[in-house]
From TrEMBL:
Any Pfam family the entry gives: MitMem_reg
Source organism superkingdom: Eukaryota
Boundaries of every MPN domain copy: 24-160
InterPro entries, alphabetized: EIF3F/CSN6-like_C, JAMM/MPN+_dom, MPN
GO MF entry, a single one: metallopeptidase activity
UniProt keyword annotations, A-Z: Initiation factor, Protein biosynthesis
PANTHER family with a match to the protein in the record: EUKARYOTIC TRANSLATION INITIATION FACTOR 3 SUBUNIT F, EUKARYOTIC TRANSLATION INITIATION FACTOR 3 SUBUNIT F-RELATED
Cell membrane keyword on record: no
A cellular-component GO term for this protein: eukaryotic translation initiation factor 3 complex, eIF3m
Name of the protein in its database record: CYFA0S01e03466g1_1
Length: 308
């Protein structure tokens, strides 16, 4: 009796690529778009994910998303290909480096229509070929927003015979796919995080919150410093508990701290640190003063020119 060992294929191998496990980063604009789509209706919403892909294909950055109309009738599903092509071409005008990464659906999992839609995004001129398409699912929560939608990402790789081989074997040319879950996270830059924090404060406040730009920047800096200070205190307390034997250490966390902390930092005494900060503040004020003087001179020159 002969044993046959079946190994799950590399999700990228069938597309002619062999890379490390895929990781998906969802930028804030795309994340907000997806959340809005999930709030619109309890019915299925389909759309295209656009963004950038690393050279080796292991890092996907979803930067934007748009809805593509579709019609479901019985076992048939029709996608408006022309609408998808038009919106993608408009997006390319302002973001020439972006490409189609895959598609999303406001469903909680994979169903009978998933392979059909995935096949559409895996082939043709406006597809992810030769890379495998990304599939993102999020649950539709409706206008009530009783819970945050769960976001899952998958890479779908085709299985079985395709193209000429499928035709020779008289098989359906539509491919079957294996969907492998891949990790994902949300990515925010400093400005977006500041806006979200201020919006969160406004939601929790009983009175309207109105802040000037300088006040917002100062509050954001103070909040960031306090957060870093709190994280340092928590880390020190955690390390002390490990040293006393209260808890068992985590090797992953230890490696993370070792990789991100500079062990060769020179110890600065408070007086020297105060001098460095004071010099930096003075340099900043001088730059602001010079910029203001130049701006005033330009405005005065423009007014004198109009008088002459």
């Amino acid at each position: 009796m002969t044993d046959i060992n079946i190994v799950r294929p590399n999700v990228l191998a069938s597309m002619g690529a062999s890379v490390a496990p895929v990781h998906v980063s969802i930028h804030a604009p795309a994340l907000f778009q997806l959340l809005e789509f999930s709030l619109r209706s309890n019915e299925r919403v389909l759309g295209t994910l656009v963004g950038t892909r690393s050279d080796d294909g292991s890092e996907l950055e979803v930067r934007d998303a748009f809805i593509v109309p579709h019609h479901e009738e019985g076992d048939e599903l029709v996608i408006e290909e022309g609408h998808n092509r038009t919106l993608y071409q408009l997006h390319k005008r302002s973001h020439p480096r972006d490409s189609i990464l895959g598609w999303f659906a406001t469903t909680e999992g994979i169903d009978s229509f998933t392979a059909l839609v995935h096949d559409f995004y895996s082939r043709g001129p406006d597809s992810t070929f030769p890379h495998p398409a990304l599939h993102l699912t999020l649950s539709a929560v409706g206008e009530q927003l009783t819970a945050m939608p769960q976001i899952n990402t998958y890479i779908g790789a085709p299985l079985g015979a395709q193209g000429i081989t499928a035709a020779q074997l008289k098989l359906d040319k539509g491919a079957s796919y294996i969907f492998t879950p891949v990790a994902n996270d949300a990515r925010f830059d400093t400005q977006e995080r500041t806006v979200l924090e201020q919006a969160s404060l406004a939601v929790r406040s009983e009175e309207p919150v109105q802040l000037e730009k300088s006040s917002v920047d100062l509050n954001a800096a103070i909040a960031s410093i306090n957060k870093v200070d709190s994280l340092i205190d928590s880390t020190v307390a955690y390390i002390e508990k490990i040293e006393t034997g209260e808890i068992k250490g985590d090797d992953k966390l230890a490696r993370l701290l070792l990789a991100n902390l500079d062990t060769n930092v020179k110890k600065l005494d408070p007086d020297h640190l105060e001098k460095v900060l004071s010099a930096h503040v003075q340099d900043t004020l001088m730059v602001e003063y010079l910029a203001s003087a130049v701006k005033t001179q330009l405005e005065l020159s423009a007014k004198l020119t109009t008088l002459v």
